[in-house]
């Protein structure tokens, strides 16, 4: 039997040999960041304790970084997020150290977090950690509003099955290497 690389290793190798794509225009980056903040706020609104924790951190800015991508936001008095002004000084900087998107996908599939460098306010870092540990998006509930309860449940169940199968496949491929 020949030793073939896994599809994720193949994608990582392919990504290393592709030319760097041009950066998107600044207006598009800003619009995508606004949309991301809207989604994050929607998720936060489903968890009152998360909003209370953010309310205590109002005005503090957090800079999220991964390669050339950044999201700079701050906690509002309502316990939600808003884009921070460029003049705001970040109280916390979280830098994802994963070198490629493939590595990020591997962490997601394995249910682990990518390595992160944390610099800044310890209390704010603790609150961000709590948020990542306890706040989950109830995708099924949101889909049920659009598709109906039965269809949403079936779709989420199928997605979980695919994710579990992918997770098992990645674990099985990683076991012989270990």
Short description:
This protein is of the alpha+beta class and 178 residues long. It is 56% helix and 16% strand. The protein folds into two domains: 7-137, Nonspecific Lipid-transfer Protein, Chain A, CATH 3.30.1050; 138-178.
* CATH topology tier name of the largest domain: Nonspecific Lipid-transfer Protein, Chain A
Spans of at least 5 consecutive residues whose pLDDT stays below 50 are: none
Distance between the termini: 19 Å
Strands of the largest sheet, in order across it? 3-2-1-4-5
Q: Please write the CATH class name of the largest domain.
A: Alpha Beta
Q: Radius of gyration over alpha carbons? A: 19 Å
Q: What average pLDDT do the residues reach?
A: 83
How many structural domains in the coordinates? 2
């Amino acid at each position: 039997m020949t030793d073939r690389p896994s599809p994720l290793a193949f994608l990582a190798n392919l990504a290393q040999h592709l030319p760097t794509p041009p950066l998107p225009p600044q207006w598009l980056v800003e619009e995508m960041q606004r949309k991301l903040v809207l989604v994050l706020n929607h998720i936060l609104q489903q968890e009152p304790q998360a909003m209370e924790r953010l309310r205590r951190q109002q005005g503090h800015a957090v800079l999220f970084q991964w390669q050339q991508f950044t999201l700079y936001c701050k906690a509002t008095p309502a316990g939600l997020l808003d884009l921070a002004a460029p003049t705001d000084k970040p109280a916390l900087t979280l830098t994802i150290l994963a070198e490629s998107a493939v590595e990020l996908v591997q962490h997601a599939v394995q249910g682990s977090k990518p390595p992160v460098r944390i610099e800044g306010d310890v209390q704010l870092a603790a609150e961000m950690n709590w948020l990542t540990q306890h706040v989950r998006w109830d995708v099924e509930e949101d889909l049920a509003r659009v598709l109906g309860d039965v269809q949403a449940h079936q779709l989420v169940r199928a997605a979980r099955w695919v994710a579990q199968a992918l997770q098992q496949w990645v674990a099985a491929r990683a076991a012989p290497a270990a």
